[in-house]
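Hi there,

I know you've been waiting on this one. I reran it after we fixed the sequence typo, so this is the corrected version. Both the input and the resulting structure follow.
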Amino acid sequence: MKKIIYVPGKNPKPPAEQHRQQLFRCLLQGVQGIDPDIADDIAATDSFTLVAWNRYFYNAVIGIEQITPWVDLLLDQQTFPESDIAAVRSMKYRLARLLYQLGDHLHWLIPLIPDKRIKASIQDTGRYFSNHNDIACKIRDLQKQPLREAAENNDRVLLIGHSMGSIIAYDSLWELQHLENCADCVDTLLTIGSPLGMHYVQKYLSGLNNKQAPSYPGNLRQWINVSARGDLVALDRSMADDYRAMVDSQQLESITDRRGDIFNHYRDSKGLNVHKSYGYLINPVVSQTIADWWRQA
């Protein structure tokens, strides 16, 4: 069977099933625009699994009413405003990106970053890496459960990690291979809005914290990374260069970065949010990637 396993990014989320339904709506509508038959097939097979780790990390949920109207707006739009494109090319964005790049190397600069969401992202990532009260281990165990089941059933898996979820996915794959001898878990890893290119993140990833003998997860076939213009969490938009050793050592076939003029048009009461998962999931590049995987798996 084919399985799509989705690992969300940071922040409290709606109750798991309600959250899953909204994500699945976006994924299906995106794929519908690429290949309606594949979208119907995905919908009919009940193949979409959400790894709902956020409630345990934040000990909180949010009401679905905070999400649904904005997802409705996103899915109802036939065209998107040119102002969205202009916003991610503005001088304000370029300055924030420069500060964030400097902060990735010089952490004392992070308080100067004007985007509160970026600073919150860094703080949450730090909490995950510190593993306070064993929280990171518990989250990775949640992630590994559906991957273990898929491996046992010889399912073909597309693992999608958004934002901090891509870190959890990476660490979980590493543990499954190096600690549990699970050598064939995932066909394709799709990361969206991922911070895995950041020096700060790479410093603490499983297997990379030993610079003398770094090791990588080798239990996947290919890795595809998609990053939207203006997404500051995806600061370094190229994974192929940072993780080239995975390909050189034949741990996987390829790493592909899709980072051209890719735009995320999600907006809510706070305005445009080019990092939001729902906007990524209806993006044609992400949708084409999912459709291609489904067709070939």
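Quick highlight: The chain has one domain: 2-296.

Best,
R. S.
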